[in-house]
Design brief:
Elements: H1 12-16, E1 20-24, E2 32-39, H2 44-54, E3 58-65, E4 70-78, H3 88-98, E5 129-136, H4 141-151, E6 154-164, E7 167-176, H5 186-201, E8 216-220, H6 229-245, E9 268-274, E10 279-287, H7 292-302, E11 305-315, E12 318-327, H8 335-350, E13 357-364, H9 369-379, E14 383-392, E15 395-403, H10 412-422, E16 426-432, H11 437-440, H12 458-466
Antiparallel strand pairs: 1-2, 2-4, 3-4, 3-11, 5-7, 5-8, 6-7, 6-14, 9-10, 10-12, 11-12, 13-15, 13-16, 14-15
Helix pairs in contact: 2-7, 4-5, 4-9, 6-7, 7-8
């Protein structure tokens, strides 16, 4: 007979040492400190970053360590306008999401709440079905997708669209126009999937050496999937990094627009080996932006690497990150692994960067609204690089990041033409894509340049301990 094992014993240490979170608004004059202490577990850093990124908090400095079975983080954060976190509801949400009542130490594979779509939680949009799409991008593709959904009597409740390196990934939440319920009839599901795959393949049939360039349309059970929305989009696009650009192509080939700013705006990623502590050290330097740390840690986690230590700094609108990682088996990266990490991190950093301007369309929601809006954008020769679609209380808020496919600045006559075609039924707000206030207000080095000595490095700490 096997000895009795109390199943509660495994969680005993978690109960006597629950996660602790401290919101400190007194130590620093220009930011809020979020301090998190907890028992360590695989993936806990990503879960913490998901909470902060979902609140649109900008992390411009952070110290992370998780050796010895304990997890300790300090994040210096500001809100989107670049101010300290003073809203009581936001503070209480962070304390609940990361404190003793959180799911930080829930068993692996448990269902955690995914990211809200835009400013609206999925629970707020009613009964829905999720559709995942990925494939080759082209001008007008989004218009065709929404036109197909409208034709098949699918009401789009929310959607998030990313494009990068002439590829597109999209998650769309829909329900049935007639009933307002999720779409679960197998025959209808099959019809919708086939129509969407046909659109994703395009009219030219094949591109490259596969049938439809990896066109993929799949219905998922949104209520049971534990995947965070941004993380899922990273995963959909990450699958294309090797399949489509396995040779390390930076995506600036035929048909890909050249980024404004040229080579200087490309992220610099290196991987080194730390002999003293048997870590692989990932160094990242790039233009700072919101959710930068989340995108990096998300990619490393999904590649099954563990971040043991990290130091993050933001100086002169540049983000500098130093991450000490190992494989899950405790070993450092091999040379071919390091090359793949560099390629995947460069893609993860770049795919959220947008150029051109944002087009915010607000109005009463109706079936076919997205199809009409994206058709107008297509008729004016504009390419949608990202989109964030939400519906709340019958009101639609759709944000499109658009640009000229040739890389040229968008003519103001085109913008006025858009206003004329949208008419009085919706409110149109146009903004140039610029550096967020949170990034622009991050403290700069006193010398006004990129001063590496002001950046805390775990490498220098290890050297001091060894001396």
């Amino acid at each position: 007979m096997l000895p009795y094992f109390d199943p509660e014993y495994e969680n005993f240490n978690q109960r006597i040492n629950p996660p602790r979170v401290c919101i400190d608004n007194t130590t620093c004059t220009d930011c809020t400190l979020v301090k998190v202490d907890s028992m360590n577990k695989n993936g806990i850093l990503l879960e913490v970053l998901q909470v902060l990124s979902d609140l649109d908090l900008h992390i411009f400095k952070a110290y992370i360590t998780s050796d010895g079975g304990w997890f300790m983080d300090v994040f210096h954060v500001v809100d989107k306008p670049g101010q300290k976190i003073t809203d009581d509801k936001t503070i209480k949400y962070i304390e609940k999401a990361l404190g003793p009542e959180s799911n930080l130490l829930c068993p692996k594979g448990s269902n955690t709440q995914g990211r809200s779509v835009g400013a609206v939680g999925l629970h707020s949009i009613g009964d829905h079905t999720a559709i995942e799409l990925k494939g080759p991008d082209r001008t007008g593709l989004l218009s065709e997708i929404f036109a197909v959904l409208a034709d098949l009597q699918c009401n789009v409740l929310a959607a998030e669209v990313w494009t990068h390196r002439m590829r597109v990934a999209c998650v769309v939440y829909v329900n049935d126009v007639a009933t307002g319920q999720a779409i679960d009839d197998p025959g209808r599901v099959s019809t919708i999937e086939n129509r969407l795959r046909h659109v994703l393949r395009g009219y030219g049939g094949v591109r490259g050496n596969d049938d439809g360039s990896g066109a993929h349309a799949n219905f998922t059970d949104a209520s049971s999937t534990p995947h965070h929305l941004d993380r899922r989009l990273h995963q959909l696009m990450h699958a294309d990094v090797d399949a489509v650009h396995g040779d390390g192509d930076d995506g600036a080939g035929a048909g890909a627009p050249v980024a404004a700013g040229g080579e200087g705006d490309r992220p610099e990623v290196t991987v080194e080996h730390c002999e003293e502590k048997s870590y692989s050290v990932v160094n990242v330097k790039c233009k700072d932006r919101s959710k930068l740390l989340f995108d990096i840690v998300c990619t490393l986690t999904d590649m099954e690497y563990v971040v043991f230590h990290a130091a993050v700094s933001s100086e002169a609108n540049y983000g500098i990150q130093e991450l000490y990682i190992r494989r899950k088996d405790g070993k450092t990266l091999l040379k071919d692994e390091a090359e793949k990490v560099i390629r995947c991190l460069e893609a993860a950093i770049s795919r959220r960067v947008s150029e051109g301007f944002t087009l915010e369309v607000c109005g009463r929601d109706r079936v076919g609204l997205l199809s009409d809006v994206t058709r107008v954008l297509r008729e004016h020769g504009l390419t949608v690089s990202r989109a964030d679609v939400t519906t709340a209380g019958g009101q639609a808020t759709n944000v499109f990041y658009v640009r000229d496919p040739s890389g040229q600045p968008v003519d103001m006559k085109t913008i006025e033409g858009l206003r004329g075609q949208f008419g009085q039924t919706v409110m149109l707000n146009v903004k140039n894509v610029s550096v967020p206030a949170a990034v622009a207000k991050a403290p700069e080095p006193r010398s006004g340049g990129m001063v590496r000595s002001s950046f805390f490095s775990f490498g220098s700490l290890f050297a001091k301990l060894r001396a």
